[in-house]
Every structure is written in C-alpha cells, then in structure tokens.
Amino acid sequence: MVWIMAIMLFLTVLAAAFGLGTLAAATVLDRQIAGRVTVQIVEANEGARERGATAALAAIRQIPGVARAVPVDRGQLAALLRPWLGEDGADPDLPIPAMIDVQLKTGSATAVAQLTQAVRAIVPTARIDRHESWMSPVSNFMQLMIWLAAGLVLLMAGATAAVVILVGRAGLDTHRETIEVMHMLGSTDMQVARLFQRRIALDTLYGGITGTVLALATIALIGSQLSGLGSDLVSGIALTERDWVLLAGLPILFALLATVAARFAVIGALRQFL
C-alpha cells in the first residue's frame, strides 16, 4: 500500500506541477502579448519609407490608448533575418520594412481599430499585426495542456480512491473471523472502520510523502535544465511559492481522500456480510 501510494503521488505531483507551470507560462504569455501591435511600413523607396515611419510614429504617440511606441532598429531586423538571408540581411540596399513596436493600454478591438485608422490615414499601405492573433494557437494549446493536467490529477485521485476501496475490502476478507469476534465482544461497525481507515490513511500519508519528495526533486531538476535554455517562453514555466505549497500539500489531501474512501468502503462491506 505504501509503495502504491508513493507511485500514485509521484505521478500526481508531476501532473500537477506540469499544469501549474503551464498556467504560469500562459499567464506570462498573455501579459506579454496583451495589447502588443507591430506596425509595418512597407515601401521600396527608402526615403518615402522613413518619412512614412516617422509620421506614423508621431501619429501613434498622439493616440490616448497607446502606452508605448518605439521604432524597431534596423540592426535588430537584420539580426532576425540573418538565419534566412545570412549576411545579406545586413545589406543597406535591402528594402526591409520599417517597423514600429506599439504597446496599447488595452488590447480591445476598439483600440486596435483606432490605431489602424490613424496609421492608414498617413500610410495607406501600412500593415498592423496583432501579436495576439498569431500567438493564439500557442495560447490555446497551453490551455489544452492545463485542462489535461487537471484531468490527470482528478483521474489519479479517483484511482487512489479505487485502490483504497479494494484494499479495505481485501482487509475485511482477510480478517473476517477476527472482526466477527470483535462484534461479539461489542465492537461497532464504526469502531472497526476506524481501525481500517487509520491504517490506510497512515500508509497513504507515508507513501504520499515519499512520492512527493521524489517528484519535487525531479521537478527541481527539470526546472534547472529549463532555466538554462535561455528561452523567454520556456523561462515562464516557473512555479511560485504558492505552487510549491500546493504540491507539498497533496499527500495530506490524498490521505484525507483515502480516509473518507476507506470509511465508506469498510462500513458498506460490513453491512453486507455481517
């Protein structure tokens, strides 16, 4: 029973940590892309492109709903193009669009429409890209993973309750004669059930603590590996102090679940054959 519960809690804590880490990453992603807009001035003529970008930037900064608007340095754009174009990405004759990074106070459709109207009144061919639109598949996938992790935790909790019920009924069958003697001596079903539920609760707690400690050590190891990758998205997969407390409290929750399941299983079985 102890080792079964250790395995169950090990898997449960890993699933819960995955869900909490993904939730944290999704929160960071939503915060980063909320209201983020990129304005592109696509013009082959460099002079016209720079004039359009300057005028558009000035107009954007006059919009009340804009929190920040800065032009993207050509060197940064060349660095982004280097994996595909090589050193040609830094060619000054290459007509790279002028880009303006905009942070809106709110990512509402009204604020984006106001920005679009103001920019296209100056540069009709300008392109306005919302970060939220092309990152929504990633956000949806992360939400799916969060629900999957929650489902796994509930499934493991249900499996734990099923194991407790089976163990309780097996214990009754093993000690049936002893329980009959206890009843003849005046013991009640509730007193017998307390003996079983206390033992099962302790086994669940001891096994749960063992599995949780191993799972937390595994999570810490994985977290140290993720932090070394240097990815902004992956770095958001970090557990807070609240998350660690929730994970550490899972053995207690499962012990309580085992106690309740053992009580109902044993009392129900006693009423059937005694």
Give an account of the 3D structure.
- By secondary structure, this protein is α+β, with helices and mostly antiparallel strands.
- It is 73% helix and 8% strand.
- The protein has ten helices and four strands; from the N terminus they run αβαβαβαβαααααα.
- Strands 2-3-1-4 form a four-stranded antiparallel β-sheet.
- α1 packs across α7.
- The chain is rod-shaped, with a radius of gyration of 30 Å.
- It starts with a helix and ends with a helix.
Helical run tally: 10
Oligomeric grouping of the chains? single chain
Q: Quote the beta fraction.
A: 5-15%
Main beta sheet: strand number and arrangement?
4 strands, antiparallel
Radius of gyration: 30 Å
Distance between the termini: 25 Å
Instruction: Please trace the helix and strand order, writing H or E for each element.
Output: HEHEHEHEHHHHHH
Low-confidence segments: none
Quickly list its features:
single chain; 274 residues; 73% helix; rod-shaped
Explain briefly what this protein structure is.
Helices cover 73% and strands 8% of the residues.
